[in-house]
Amino acid sequence: MIPKLHYIAQGSSPKDYLDNIQNACTSGIELIQLGIPKLVDKKFLKLAQEARETTSHFQTRLIIEDRYKIAKEIKADGVLMNNPNSYPTLRKHLHTWQMMAGKANTLQDCEFLLSKEVDYIVLGPFKTTTKEDNTTLGVNGFTAITDVLNTETPMIGTGNILIEDVKDILAAGISGIAVAEEITEDFHCIRTYNQLLNASVTEEQRHSF
Q1: Is the pTM of this model over 0.85?
Q2: Which CATH superfamily groups domain 5-204?
Q3: Domain range list for the chain
Q4: Is 145 within 8 Å of 110 (Cβ atoms)?
Q5: Helices 41-58 & 14-26, crossing angle to 10 degrees?
Q6: I need a labelling partner for 55 at 20 to 30 A (CA). Which of 45, 114, 183, 208 fits?
Q7: In Å, how far are 91, 96, 152, 181 from 173, measured between CA atoms?
């Protein structure tokens, strides 16, 4: 069973990322999503290796965005792909036990990912800081998609989610959430999120992927 709360790691430098990952693990996060598109592979590999050491110590799952070769090399728990064109051959590039997840914005995206038998889908954005952004789904968008799909594959909502949004998101049929800014600003809120999601550490430890 996938954890219901994911932390999207943030930072202004590799050291910031590692410090924030350490703080999130210490505060009880169970899954961390790591991706820095602008960082070259060599530097990202070093960062990912150090992040893996920290997450392994805390038995926290580490998901790498897009760079599946690095995910395989450092034995991350899985990879989250933004580019759907990678899926036809992705599974053979991973360890058999590694998870494969994908990002989606539409019902069609979700249906495609389900056809590739992904382990979970990250759906969003729930909301954005730009009112003109037509890709924003909101509660109505989440509900419309989950009603049609009726799938047991976990759906993780993402996109500027705050504690105040959790109840409505769960009511929309979403399994869990991925949070960046609010957790980075206050790692103590992880406990509050877990309580709202009914995803206590002890409960999740009874399950495995």
Answers
A1: yes
A2: Aldolase class I (3.20.20.70)
A3: 5-204
A4: yes
A5: 20
A6: 114
A7: 28, 29, 11, 23
